[in-house]
């Protein structure tokens, strides 16, 4: 098996990478390989983009380095599959335990994102009378562009009743509090919040599941899954090298998303700046997750006229109703019959647009989901919305505008919500969040 | 209050396009023509088709918003149109065409008499098509009847609201609770019209979950919570007498304003058909799920009222539909009746079973039947208006 790895100074290379199952001793070599992404900032991202652009159609053998200035899985070209999990830490967890958990997670994440098994011996090479260290279902699968991204919830710093379990309360970013209630929110506690989160994205669903499964196993006794979400299809492009995918309403989604090729926008809107505070979060971001249920049965019997009016784009090409093609900027002033705007006042594209929100943008990285069906025989389907932004205020501003007036609200409801601070990337040999505990 | 896409707003586009309607052609989809609407031309890929379903795929190659018209033999009567096509966009116009002479024209900039007017001929088809000569009269009758229905329901809403508010302020909560669901039925019967007044709907029918942080909560559901405090969250404090008076006064005043607003409404055919669709959507998204009446659990009253309203709308256009598509009419008759049977089974005297007393199987049966009705019902606009 040959994999492509990242060379920041040149075009993607095809290099021989050990197959899965190789022992943890290979990690030392791995850490060295990961170091190419270190301290390179946007250069590392550009390299990642170059890899994706040059990758095979499935992207199956692409790897993204785990170590680097920023965590992977943010500006990384959105992979096709998601497994996301929020965790609550154990009641008896100490600060040292928490650090150790993050170290263990980082080590395992570095191995898995390189296409290797976790543990010293992996899935099948260990002692015969011990359970295998790696769960094994990713054997024979390529790295599939796996990225693993860690985040810290508000309750990690201070619980709802004020407890400072890990001596972190003073280091909590001011902006890291529960999101406000938005009109129409029907949030379920069991689908919301959490002390920690892990976003695993890959082009192979089993690779993503393997990651969450092994990381949750590593955490047993220290942290347990509070809620989790599978996403079967990406709904956003985060690189101009990607075609715009469709959400379950059948419309292209994420056309105007922040793309990795816009370094200024990424700097302005996605990464926490060194002056934003706190210092440990500089180079990180804020992750908002919203489980948005779509009542697709009702939507599907809606007239095409209404569907396009609600979205503000046409359904075929994804062009704004003001004219042009998919990537033409919407013109909200152009009017049609009776001087009514071609893009309705309540159209989703209008209310979400940066020009209607003081220039606010987010890097969206959501996924379609269908989790079986509900008790009424309707598909339990929707969009697992994920956005990365420099400040949670960016999400809140746009979401308030949408929640109040979006014509789409008739067909969606927000049932889960969570906010996490995503620390910057880890230096090789270190762990994610190390600066927080320094 | 989920449907923000109001009947009145939605109906604005398809008011016309009636007089060319013909019986549905069972022969299936006809030819697909293309139309190029440029700055100075309106070229159609063919000038003659056989009667039946015809589709015009209109591309705006100019730089202004354009419209495409299919006109009758007098060159004035609008048979079909695709409006509000932005520059560079393509939109399809699908029409049923009877044998005869027509004209095609485009209107870039949407002003003036249009350009590129050209003769367009529809030749006889083998299956034959029939023009409904009485259509205009039938549509006008349906409009008049529905306008009267809306005014009557809102008038009864005013009377009921006055009595409800008086009982609530007087502390006669038993009476208020009795009047609550029965009075709201008048609102729910014409919900798609009532909520089309964007400023009044949130004042009258907002649910607590729809509130913005810091927003004042008024209307039926704010009072509902106070009337069924046992269903509210722990620690919920009963309202003060002042707050009760204020909520009641506001409810009465807003309802009176609503009554004023509906006096001069008229309804196009598409507004009526889309209104029926909208009411079914209300049932599917709010009532079947028990979300509308969060504390009183009187969702089935609303459910019945939404269906009452949809039934009235359907009955108003049914004669037209029978001529256009008798099979669809038969299917809708049957599905409406099946849904009503399910509702009748939950009647308890003048009341209904509370939502919370329904079994999962009963709720499931409602949901399935709503789907069974909504699928054909949502064909109504396309069948009648095109």
Please explain how this structure is put together.
The complex is a heterodimer of chains A (438) and B (386). Chain A has helices at 26-34, 42-54, 95-113, 154-157, 205-219, 263-269, 296-300, 304-311, 348-352, 392-405, 434-437, and strands spanning 2-5, 13-16, 81-89, 147-152, 196-202, 223-231, 233-234, 285-294, 363-364, 367-373, 379-389, 412-422. With 438 residues, chain A is α+β, with helices and mostly antiparallel strands. Chain A has one domain. In chain A, strands 7, 8, 9, 10, 11 and 12 form a six-stranded antiparallel beta sheet that branches. In chain A, strands 4-5-3-6 form a four-stranded antiparallel beta sheet. Chain A has a two-stranded antiparallel ribbon with strand order 1-2. In chain A, α3 packs antiparallel against α5 (205-219). The radius of gyration of chain A is 22 Å and the shape is globular. Chain A starts with a strand and ends with a helix. The model of chain A is unreliable at 1-18 and 21-58 (pLDDT under 50). Chain B has two domains: 22-123, Immunoglobulin-like (Sandwich); 135-385, M75 peptidase, HXXE motif (A middle domain of Talin 1), CATH 1.20.1420.20. Chain B has helices spanning 7-11, 135-169, 173-189, 191-194, 200-205, 220-227, 241-261, 269-287, 299-324, 326-344, 360-377, 380-385; strands spanning 29-37, 42-44, 48-50, 52-60, 66-71, 78-85, 90-97, 100-106, 115-123, 347-348, 351-352. Chain B has a five-stranded mixed beta sheet, with no helix packed on it. In chain B, strands 2-1-4-7 form a four-stranded mixed beta sheet, with no helix packed on it. Chain B has a two-stranded antiparallel sheet with strand order 10-11. In chain B, a hairpin with a 6-residue loop joins β5 and β6. In chain B, α2 (135-169) packs antiparallel against α7 (241-261). The longest helix of chain B has 35 residues, at 135-169. The two termini of chain B are 30 Å apart. The model of chain B is unreliable at 1-28 (pLDDT under 50). Classes of the chains: A alpha+beta (438), B alpha+beta (386).
